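Note to self: keep these together.
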Amino acid sequence: MNLDELVSQLRAAASGNVGEDLQKNLRATLSAGLSKLDVVTRQEFEIQREMLDALRAQIEWLSAQVEALEAKKK
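Structure:
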């Protein structure tokens, strides 16, 4: 569940101006709390995962090259 979904559920639970004030205050409080944590966005996570996948593929290719060279050497 993301922040917007949580706020939507709370907004549905409370109606009128009280709900809007609650939403604004809750969003501000949660945003401030999350900014203090060491978290990353989903987009940042996906970028890092793509980079890791590329590096893994490169390591596998280099390992195969080393094995081929070692086989020729023998």
